[in-house]
Design brief:
With 344 residues, the protein is of the alpha+beta class. The protein has helices at residues 2-18, 22-33, 38-44, 53-90, 109-122, 137-140, 173-181, 224-239, 292-297, 314-322, 335-338; strands at 127-128, 134-136, 165-167, 188-197, 209-219, 245-252, 255-264, 281-290, 306-312. Its main location: cytoplasm.
Length: 344
Amino acid sequence: MKERLQELQEEAIQQIQGTQDLKELNDIRVSFLGKKGPITEVLKGMGKLPAEERPIIGEVANKVREAITNAIEKKLATLEQAEVEKKLASQKIDVTLPGRPVRKGNHHPLTAIVEEIEDLFIGMGYTIAEGPEVESDYYNFEALNLPKGHPARDMQDSFYISEETLLRTQTSPIQVRTLEMHEGKGPVRIICPGKVYRRDNDDATHSHQFTQIEGLVVDENIRMSDLKGTLTVFAQKMFGEDRKIRLRPSFFPFTEPSVEMDISCKICHGEGCNVCKGTGWIEILGAGMVHPNVLEMAGFDSKKYTGFAFGMGPERIAMLKYGIEDIRNFYINDRRFIDQFKRA
Ligand code: DAH
């Protein structure tokens, strides 16, 4: 019996040492030390032994069990260690590798232009005013001297939401909202940037959504010469001190008289080239003296107060300033386009 136990021990240890696999090691443990294993089997026969031999065999059996258990534990530790080392070797982290650079953003060229124009007018004492993009027919048209059915409404094809509500087609309604807030008292000196919407088919120079900047000054004794002086400063700061402006008669329902402002072409300086289509001048914005009807409807006394207003499209200004040929570049968010306008 003693020999049998010794044999089992040797056999077990041999198997334990021979394995490289955690699952197999567990199978070995079960097969030798389990309830149905050979050691238990041997011990079952102890009853047939003489009384004085039983403790001796019992002791041997315990030692064999202990030896096998120890061998398994030792092997287990080695195998586990090997497993960890294998993982470490295959999943190595190189802490000396350079990091991936974080791409820095920059202002969108349109934002940059709007801010530049805002700053210019803030420097002349203007404040910024804003209004809703979903606007009432009253503010977008009627209060701007464009009653229902007025033919000039057709100049701006609109997105109506209901009979009385639309996406604003211009930033001019902010003029009216601001005048109302001033309750008939000047001075008013505001610049209003914002998105506007028109039913246009998008192409290189048209977009159903674009940006406008509106200006409004209302006070006592505001004259056309104030408008001209302001626009001259604006044009020269924006496009260069050597630029000239000219005002051409035009029509807007909310101004009288109305003008369109051109700047002299920077390419040919008035000689005529393909940028200015041979005229020497480039159209920049619409402007005029605020129509008395607009002042009166908003609660201002048009005998006491006069004013001027202007409206421009920053996309167009950016296109002229930077030589951008397609307005859609502002909206498709191609970083190769946007990244060209990084500011210091
Ligand atoms: N709202 C006009 C437009 O969208 C632009 C404009 C022209 C605004 C003359 C003005 C102005 O304030 O005085 O076509």
